[in-house]
Write a structure and sequence with these properties.
There is one protein chain. With about 100 residues, this protein is α+β, with helices and mostly antiparallel strands. The chain has one domain (about 5-100). About 25% of the residues lie in helices and about 25% in strands. The chain has a 4-stranded antiparallel beta sheet. β1 (about 20-25) and β2 form a beta hairpin. The longest helix is centred in the last third of the chain and has 17 residues, at about 80-95. The two termini are about 20 Å apart.
Length: about 100
C-alpha cells in the first residue's frame, strides 16, 4: 500500500520538480501542473491555478521510455489533494493488480 509519506510534501512540487515512484508493477509520476518553479514567488496566488498531476503506467520502463498508454489524474494543490492522490493510486493498483504485475 502506498502511504502519503512515501512521496514529498507539497512545497517540494513548487520547485517545478517531479517525483517518480512505483508500487508493484505500477509506476507513477507526481508533479505540479503547470510544472514550473514558483517556490521563490512570494505572491499569494502563485498556486491559484495549479494542481497536482499524477500519471500512472505499467513498468518496467521509465516515464520517458514508455510507449504504452499512460493515465493521468489531477488533484487540488494542497495536502487534501495529496491525500486524495494517495487514495487514487492505491485504488488504481488494487483494482488492476493483475494488469500491473504482468509488465
Amino acid at each position: 500500500m502506498i502511504e502519503r509519506t512515501d512521496f514529498y510534501r507539497i512545497n517540494y512540487f513548487e520547485y517545478g520538480e517531479a517525483f517518480y515512484g512505483s508500487h508493484g508493477g505500477m509506476r507513477f509520476r507526481i508533479a505540479r501542473y503547470p510544472q514550473k518553479n514558483v517556490f521563490f514567488d512570494r505572491s499569494e496566488d502563485k498556486n491559484k491555478d495549479a494542481c497536482l498531476e499524477c500519471v500512472i503506467w505499467r513498468g518496467p520502463l521509465a516515464f520517458a521510455k514508455t510507449q504504452e498508454e499512460k493515465e493521468t489524474q489531477r488533484f487540488s494543490f494542497d495536502e487534501d489533494g495529496a491525500d486524495a492522490l494517495t487514495a487514487w493510486l492505491n485504488e488504481q493498483y488494487e483494482n488492476r493488480k493483475d494488469y500491473w504485475e504482468q509488465g
